[in-house]
Amino acid sequence: MSRLNHVLKALPGTVSGTRQQPLAQQAANVVSDITDVELNRFIWEVPVIKFQDRNVFVSYQKKLAKYVKELISDRWRPLMFPPGKHPREGYRLFIDPTETLYTLARAYKYINPDLQRDVKQYVAQMSSKGSPLAGPVGQRRYDPDEGTVRSLYDVPPESMIQVRDDIVRSDLARLYVFWLWADVTGDWSRIEQNWDFLQKIIDQPPNKMAEDCRNAYLAGLIAYCRIAFRMRDVKAVEKGLNTAQRAFRERLEYEYAYTRGGLITQVPVLRTIFGRWRNLTPEVGRLCSAYALQTHKHLMDVYIDYHRPTWYLAWNVETMWRNECPFAFPTMSAEVFAARAFILREPAEKLKGFLDIPWCKADLFYIQKLLFIIEAHGEVFWQTYNRNLPLTTASPVWPEGELSQSQSKLVR
Description:
The chain has 17 helices and 7 strands. The protein is mainly α. It has one domain (22-150, 157-407). The strands form 3 sheets. Strands 2-3-4 form a 3-stranded mixed beta sheet, with no helix packed on it. Strands 1-7 form a two-stranded antiparallel ribbon. It has a two-stranded antiparallel ribbon with strand order 5-6. A hairpin with a 3-residue loop joins strand 5 and strand 6 (271-273).
């Protein structure tokens, strides 16, 4: 970035582990030693959270129910985030219908049966013909002019500003969302009806690395394998495993190459995000934690706790690089919160201190933060994913103890 060039030029040399000097060869060497069987663990194991005392987070469950009810009480427009000096664009956030479904799927097992029923009815309505979640993977975006305004401020006429939509998930990335919804509700009819279409989307190219370090793409591949396993499609399982293993290695090479940087990425138009922590899921967070925990602790310490200690405040002043806007983007706190929960596994008491107020009505990120706090009260166990009968090939079997071989080779 131009404003930092004078600082970088004044250094005695380039800093290893940053974009100026990535540890590419060292990363490739470490990743080459990771076996396919070792990587398969991140596909075939699912998180199960066990709580000793559910009473300790009752207040957060009540909050969760309140905001889930708000979310399903209406159809909401994407949030129009106001433009700043540069970039001049105003951004539409919560534009992706699958972000809504992902949030409801994550919340489903922590709400009461009556609210679960209402959520299922809401999703069914959203999945009807012509609606945002219609079709095998839903519509690409919400209609920006349809629904109730989310913001507590008057939205300026679009003729006065340039508007851009936030980044949305690819078709393959959306598989994780629909798998999760089917898994928590037990309703696999949508996936079963659309499997002929869904099994082909694995051939679609991945999204750009800067958007989210392909976290959503990895999650989609994990879901693809699990769905193919359930559908008894041996060829699809094998293709999914091969594709996922390659994608895992590419992601881990990024982790090992950028041990001191590579956290903040640039996306159109001249906007910066915490791309490395965007679209994290429990499985992708576990992958990052298993192989690069110390790196992420360092990034959190330097880029967040030291330089941006007020990152969690709603409508905080802008603290990112390049976003010359009066306010921080809501995505910033969501990305950091997810990293603290899924990668660093920080305790509930610490996460509670980072919960501020919602940014708007039907704030999906606020619901997700409540879920991070609730789940942090429990202990995570990873159990083999097994839906009914085993396949004769590519069955989810894991030999214990192999993971530690590569964990000891962390690049620090």
